[in-house]
Amino acid sequence: MATVELRFSAQPEHVRTARLVAAAVARRAGVDEAVLDEVRLAVGEACSRAVGLHRSHGITAPVTVVLIEEEKTFAIEVGDEVPGPGADGSVPGGVSGRRAATSGGGLDAAEPEADDEDEMGLAVISGLVDDVEVRSGAGGGVIRMSWPKTPVPVLP
């Protein structure tokens, strides 16, 4: 299982680099060429969301992107360090605490525009990626996205 970790300061100009690295590693891992645009767009959305969260909460820690090549799948985890509503971040239905709170107007009710952008980014990611998981806890949040790898044909 090969893993690549990318850490960058929460600046919008670094999102493009994260997208390019993710697409290159996904291609090398065996993700179908037809899906690479989805990988790029989903990583761009997830990284933009993390950058926005860091900047709006005054967090100077880097955004992390972990690219994981598993036997049959390729996964990407984009992490932020914005604390969620609880230590475990679990919310019924598998939705992150931050996402559940923003949809109800609870956690960041003072910033409805930021909530709308957060929800829109998560909706775009959900539309691009079939297998997506959003977690949030006291140490920050993670969006985990995964795609199937194309099986390598066995030659006789």
Structure keywords:
single chain; 156 residues; alpha+beta; five-stranded antiparallel sheet; 4 helices; 24% strand; elongated
Q: What can be said about the biggest beta sheet?
A: 5 strands, antiparallel
Low-confidence stretches: 87-110
Cα shape: elongated
Number of helices: 4
End-to-end C-alpha gap: 26 Å
- The secondary-structure element order is EHHEEHHEE
Q: Let me know the average pLDDT.
A: 82
Described by its quaternary structure, the protein is: single chain
The SS-based structural class is alpha+beta
Number of strands: 5
Q: Tell me the β content.
A: 15-25%
Helix-residue proportion? 25-40%
Write the layout of secondary structure elements.
Blueprint (H helix, E strand, L loop, with lengths): L1 E7 L6 H15 L6 H21 L6 E7 L3 E8 L16 H7 L8 H17 L2 E7 L2 E9 L8
Antiparallel strand pairs: 1-2, 2-3, 3-5, 4-5
Please give a structural write-up.
- With 156 residues, this protein is an alpha+beta fold.
- The protein is built from 4 helices and 5 strands.
- The chain has a 5-stranded antiparallel sheet.
- Mean pLDDT is 82; it is low at 87-110.
In short:
By secondary structure, this protein is an alpha+beta fold.
